[in-house]
Structures are given as C-alpha cells and as structure tokens.
Write a structure and sequence with these properties.
Elements lengths: L7 H52 L3 H91 L1
Helix pairs in contact: 1-2
C-alpha cells in the first residue's frame, strides 16, 4: 500500500494559492481595462471639446466664452492627467499581481515535482515488495516440491 505523500497539504495549499492568484490577476486586469477605457473616454471628450472651441473661435465668440472654454479644457486636461496616473497605478498593480501569480505557479510546480517523485519512489518500493513476495512464494513452492519429492522417493 502506498504511503501518503507527507507534503500533500502543501501541494493542496499551493494549488489553492495559484487559483486565488489567478482570480486576483483577472480582477486586476479588469480594473486596468476599466481605467484605460475611462482615460480613452476623457481624452476623446477633451478632443471633442477642443474641436468645438476651434469651431466657435472661427465663428467668433466673446472673451468670457473663450475663458470658460479654456477653464473647462484645463479641468479636462487635469482629469486626463489624473486618469493617466490611475492607469499607471492599475498597470503597476497588475504587474505585481502577475509576479505573485508566477511565483505561486513556480511553487506549485516544485511541490508537484516532489509529489511526482514521491509517487515514483512509492511505485518502485511497491514493485520491489511485490517482487520479494513473489520470490518468497516461489521459494516456498520449490521447498514444498522438493520435500514432496523427497518424501515420495525416500
């Protein structure tokens, strides 16, 4: 009978940790994509608003309207910068999550290799034990056959 791998709880734990790291990485990727989409929306709105300013300037507009447009564009620029910083933070968090996931996978593979090695050693041990039992059985049968021959002939 095979002996249980003594590090099996660690194998199981490493598998759980890989799964948890995968879930975290997926969540971080979703957050990263959302931040990028939001940045793209803000940038598109800024471009659209600049175009509106250019069209309005071409048609003629008052100084107060120009200042209002410029103030709003400044706020859009600031929003783009803030959202760009958010994208950078999400990218950094994703990279950290990816490093963690890779590390958890590496550990799991190491434990899996130990488990495989243990299973092979157990198979070899059982094979040797089975061979020994067969050899013992064959020896017993030979002794009995010899004893029966000796008794019959003797």
């Amino acid at each position: 009978m095979s002996r249980r791998f003594p590090l099996q709880p660690l194998v199981d734990l490493s598998a759980d940790r890989v799964e948890a790291a995968e879930r975290r990485l997926q969540a971080l990727d979703a957050e990263r994509r959302q931040a990028r989409e939001k940045l793209a929306q803000v940038e598109a709105y800024r471009v659209e608003y600049r175009d509106r300013l250019q069209r309005s300037l071409a048609q003629g507009m008052g100084v107060m309207q120009v200042r209002d447009f410029q103030a709003f564009l400044a706020r859009l620029d600031e929003a783009c910068m803030q959202q760009g910083a958010e994208v950078a933070a999400r990218d950094a968090a994703y990279l950290e999550g990816q490093k963690d996931w890779l590390e958890q996978r590496r550990r799991k593979k190491a434990f899996d290799a130990l488990s495989t090695r243990h299973a092979r050693a157990e198979d070899a041990r059982e094979g040797r034990l089975e061979q020994r039992l067969q050899d013992d059985h064959a020896q017993t049968m030979l002794r009995e056959a010899k004893r029966d021959r000796d008794e019959a002939g003797g």
